[in-house]
Amino acid sequence: MDMARIIDGKALAAGIREKVARRVALLKAEHGVTPGLAVMQVGDDPASRVYTRNKAKQTVEAEMASFKFDLAAETTQKDLLRKISELNEDSRVNGILVQLPLPDRIEEHAVINAIDPAKDVDGFHTINTGLLATGQDALVPCTPLGCLMMLRDALGDLGGQKALVLGRSNIVGKPMAMLLIKENCTVTVAHSRTRDLAAEVRQADVLVAAAGRPRMVKGDWIKPGATVIDVGINRVPIGEDEKTRLVGDVDFDEAVTVAGAITPVPGGVGPMTIACLLHNTVAACCRQSGIDLPED
Ligand code: NAD
């Protein structure tokens, strides 16, 4: 039985982080500029804590300036908007990220759209989503950007591929579809109301699964030889005791015997997201400082 090539997200992410670190060193040495990233969390959701801590840690490891704000769960929308406005004005801060989800009483769009679009390194501001949708230069959401980098690594030119994006969220599914259209794929977006999902998946040369449903995509849904990017991060119990493990939206053990290439969970898309955040922060810094760094 032919087994799929495993796309190594850890190794690819390490490569991106090294490139980021080289660019940061160049910005410091030749331009006297240190890129800075501000990460804000409201409340103490444990998963968000892990994410914001890792983002800050990797920012420091890339020798960028890290500004971390852990705001109390009771923080009002007005206070949050005031803090964002301060960071918009702060020239040491090139990127601003507000960790989602926010508490229910805070309006997510109002907060995201308060960020200066030039500092919106998560790429969620309506200006950046509009730029992406119209094929213009934009700050692109980190997870779909990481998926695209993995696809380019696995396949090279994506032109003409039939791609299925499973999920239509603003964070993953929709921007992923926009990126794949830009890459000249023929794109289908499937979601919770899609009729006969298995039949849709069977057509796809490229599958990006972002539904948040553990092992939903079965091996016999996958077109033989297809490239599978599994964005899902789902914690499931193993055995009788309290132990859990992370699985994706794709049944990996089945899919690995059918696909041409596949990302594992963990160690696939996950590590790429933060690497892309650092990449976006350096890009935002260059643009804000009017510096045109050569690609290395
Ligand atoms: P979401 O809940 O906002 O969106 C899920 C999408 O999947 C929806 O559009 C919904 O229509 C679709 N969907 C749900 N159930 C379905 C079903 N049974 N059939 C078909 N479609 C279905 O989730 P999200 O924020 O887009 O995240 C998706 C997954 O990706 C989650 O597991 C999340 O943890 C993971 N994620 C990972 C990263 C990362 O690796 N860094 C980043 C973001 C999200």
What's this, in brief?
The chain has 296 residues and is an alpha/beta fold.
Explain this structure to me?
This protein is an alpha/beta fold and 296 residues long. The protein has ten helices and eleven strands. It has two domains: 31-116, Rossmann fold (3-Layer(aba) Sandwich), CATH 3.40.50.10860; 142-270, Rossmann fold. The protein has a six-stranded parallel β-sheet with strand order 1-11-8-7-5-6. A three-stranded parallel β-sheet has the order 3-2-4, sandwiched between helices. The model has no long low-confidence stretch (mean pLDDT 97). The structure holds nicotinamide-adenine-dinucleotide. Nicotinamide-adenine-dinucleotide (NAD) binds next to helix 10.
Topology (SSEs and partners):
Blueprint: E1 5-6, H1 9-31, E2 36-42, H2 46-61, E3 65-71, H3 77-89, E4 95-98, H4 108-112, H5 126-133, H6 142-155, E5 162-166, H7 173-182, E6 186-190, H8 197-202, E7 206-209, E8 227-230, E9 234-237, E10 244-247, H9 252-255, E11 261-262, H10 269-289
Parallel strand pairs: 1-11, 2-3, 2-4, 5-6, 5-7, 7-8, 8-11
Antiparallel strand pairs: 9-10
Helix pairs in contact: 1-10, 2-10, 6-7, 6-10
Nicotinamide-adenine-dinucleotide binds near residues 171, 192, 212, 232 and 234.
Which key terms come to mind for this protein?
alpha/beta, Rossmann fold, 11 strands, single chain, 296 residues, 16% strand, 2 domains, six-stranded parallel beta sheet, 41% helix, globular, binds nicotinamide-adenine-dinucleotide, three-stranded parallel beta sheet
